[in-house]
Amino acid sequence: MNERGRKRVLLGTVVSDKMDKSVVVQVERLVQHSIYKKYVKRYKKYAAHDETNQCRLGDVVKITESRPLSKTKKFRVNEIVKRAV
13, 55, 56, 69: which has the highest count of C-beta atoms within 10 A? Predict the structure, then answer.
């Protein structure tokens, strides 16, 4: 299938909401260890654009890849899946 135009959609937790219209989202994935075959958690942080400033610390959000919005922001907050308690 054609890869052009396909945007990555990631699910992660908001770890910082201190910026204006921006959040930092931590995405967790499982990777199998090459020798021991045990699954290990790997984490990566993405800066995402939050136009309405609705995301709060601890929210589970869905982010979508987009054009570069700044030096580090290449994702947009698509929806808030679960609110933090």
Answer: 55
Domain 9-82 class, CATH top level:
mainly beta
**Which position has the token pair 């654009």?**
49
Instruction: Tokens for 30, please give them.
Output: 């499982």
Tens-digit pLDDT profile for residues 53-82: 999 999 999 999 999 999 999 999 999 999
**Burial of 65 (C-beta count, 10 Å sphere; 0-12/13-18/19+):** middle
- Which residues neighbour 27 within 8 Å (Cβ) at sequence distance 6 or greater? 10, 11, 12, 43, 44, 45, 46
Q: Kind of pairing, strands 9-16 and 22-32?
A: antiparallel
